[in-house]
Amino acid sequence: GEEVAQTPKHLVRGEGQKAKLYCAPIKGHSYVFWYQQVLKNEFKFLISFQNENVFDETGMPKERFSAKCLPNSPCSLEIQATKLEDSAVYFCASSQGGSVSYEQYFGPGTRLTVT
Amino acid sequence: AQSVTQLDSQVPVFEEAPVELRCNYSSSVSVYLFWYVQYPNQGLQLLLKYLSGSTLVESINGFEAEFNKSQTSFHLRKPSVHISDTAEYFCAVSDRDFNKFYFGSGTKLNVKP
Predict the structure, then answer these.
(1) Partner A contacted by B105 (CB < 8 A)
(2) A22 touches chain B (CB under 8 A)
(3) Using the beta-carbon criterion (under 8 Å), do A40 and B105 form an inter-chain contact?
(4) Region of A99 on the Ramachandran plot (φ > 0 left; ψ -120 to 50 alpha; else beta)
(5) Which of A65, B11, B74, B81 is 20 to 30 Å from A57 at the Cα level?
(6) Count of A–B CB contacts within 8 Å?
(7) Tens of pLDDT along A16-26?
(8) How many angstroms separate the CA atoms of B52 and B17, rounded?
């Protein structure tokens, strides 16, 4: 598609429950990025993929967060045993990467509320 | 590693007045520079970008930004703002080698009638 699609739009989970977010990048884009935007509006980089391979995972809290980008499937970000502090808007972005363009195109986000 | 500083968290301005949103970055390597805009309850939209060439870049809705390498700045300006420009603006830096974005903390532009 021509836009980055994210589902669901809103997600409410009780503390300790699992949350799974999905992202469909723009067709033809090789890179996918996940960001977490918390209340102070700061964007925290979580992880990036080059096709189905993890490119950079330096921002991931590895104990509870995991992510995948499998061929012919939406990318996913999963949080095991959510905590109150995980409440945020999670944005996915994609880019062509390489020497073509470093511009990232953002999806509308998934708002996760942990109660 | 890079970092981005947006010193002004909020900028109130009257309609038709000029505005400048400041962005400074720190980097030991060449970078790409971006301004994104976020309207309430929406994702980020690219406003303009500097990759190479002319240091002054413009958007289709009247914003412009100038890359100043010596001052490591990429300030965003508009000579006359409109109510519809009310939004949050994020400056971002991308490392040319790693295709990873570093965002500033954002500046809320509030245009008053």
Answers:
(1) yes
(2) no
(3) yes
(4) alpha
(5) B74
(6) 50
(7) 999 999 999 99
(8) 30
